[in-house]
Amino acid sequence: MKNLIVHIAIVVFSVTISYGQISPGDLSEAHKELEGMSNCTQCHELGEKVLDRKCLECHKEIQTLINKKEGLHGQVKVIKQDCFKCHSDHHGRKFDMIHLDEDSFNHEETGYELEGKHATVDCRECHMPDNIQNIEIKKKKHTFLGLDQECLACHDDFHQETLSADCVQCHDFKEFRPASNFNHNDAEFALKGKHKDLECIECHKETTRNGKEFQEFAGLAFEDCVSCHEDPHERKLPGDCKSCHKEDDFSLFFGGDTFNHNTTNFTLNGKHNEVDCFSCHKESDNPLLVFQDNLRTNENNCVKCHDDVHEGKFGLDCAKCHRETSFLSIKEIKNFDHSVTDYPLEGKHLQVDCKKCHKGRFTMAIDFSACNKCHDDYHQGEFAVNNISPDCIECHSLQEGFDYSLYTLDQHQETDFPLKGAHVATPCYACHVSEEKDRWTFRELGSKCVDCHNDIHENYISVTFYPKQDCTACHINDTWSSINSFDHSKTDWALEGKHQQVACRDCHFTESENNKNEIIQKFTNLETDCIACHDNVHENTFAINGVTDCVRCHVTTSWIPENFDHDTTNFSLEGKHTEVDCRACHTSTTVNGKEEIIYKLNKLECIDCHQ
Known about the structure:
The chain is mainly alpha-helical and 611 residues long. 15% of the residues lie in helices and 5% in strands. It has a two-stranded antiparallel sheet with strand order 1-2. The longest helix has 21 residues, at 2-22. The radius of gyration is 67 Å and the shape is elongated. The N and C termini lie far apart (197 Å).
């Protein structure tokens, strides 16, 4: 029991001594709520020093800065230090844990360098609750946390959201006025000329807005000079002032090259663009009168300013023919009325380009007394009489062109070669287009048939019947197949009977045995025997000494054997036999695939034919 009491006494003594070591002093005012042995482990680890982790579990705003690497606590050298190095405790309630020497503190260590006026400002003018946005941090007393680096976090927005919130685009840290960083050339309205010498206040008026001082920098109208300046022309002149004036001096006129005359009722084109303004307009110092003359001049009324070299003959609308690039330059004048000239256009002339006739200036006179004054004589003098060629209009028409001729058939009949027969239906080009020259020709064509046609009978027909290759000795103009009553009796073989009806080529033309398309002509040395032209259907039945003389039985008028005398045979016809048709006795049979009539019956007794 005694030992137990001693043991308890030792424990109580030990605890008393231990408490004195655990609590070296009172905590600061900020940490006073953590007094007592039960709260030690909120900051301390048993047997360990104070850990940064324990501090940051409570001071989350510091942890946020470390994570973002912002502010003083976000700097690398600060992150590497223990919190208690700068912020120790247990030094009493009134102990300032921050220990910040404001005079020697280097603000650059926070990541925000103090420049200009910022370097002379007392810390608490910036580090004050009104400038802190975070509500939790704002509750802390004498804190240096929670400030934003944006200007408007501390300063009022003088421009009241009419300009960018990035104040350093225009201002520096020395003073708000003037805005030394602002370059007016970067604005939508760059300053030029006299505008450079103006004070800002002349354009940007000071006023009151929302009960505060305000100066207008945005939303100013500057689309036209009259937005700021009075218009001395009282809007009598169109367009922007800068089209005539420069910002160096409004009293000077520079509009010759820059004024857009197309804004008026007179569009400048071509040479008009190069004319000095005062060539058309009177000079005047009165801004209400300058350029106000000629207001109602129609841009197509050229003679208002220019002399009419045509003396009104072609009307007053010069633009129909002329371009404004030059009066000598003529555009395509489709609408020009040529009928007002001495030579109205007709027919094919209506389709001809003007420059085909007007080689030089359009006002130069053209000799149009005859076609050959403009056109070459295609016929090369073929129709000339006494070296004078007739005018083209005697054969040609403006309506149809040179390919069409007015020359009639009746006129051709009066020439040295009147057309007859098939020649009447022959197209003109068949005779008058030379294949050799590839052109139309009408002279020295010749009048003989062989001058145009090939003589297919050359060397085949004797000159006796064909003198000087005169085709008309046999042929007529109607067709080549028609023969002009050739007197065959002049030959050695006069035509009789049916021979007079036979076409010449049936006897005188034969096909080549080797080539069906080749025709062989034969007019001389023709044989006169019938079998020379006709098939011998009787073969050798009536041959005498191997020769069959057809004329002993047949005549040329028909195949009927009118010359045959039955009495010359071994069986004379008498009585009723004279009335019997030959075919009743002379029947036909087939021999070697051919039908053959039997003429030699060798039956002379009655019983041979009659029962």
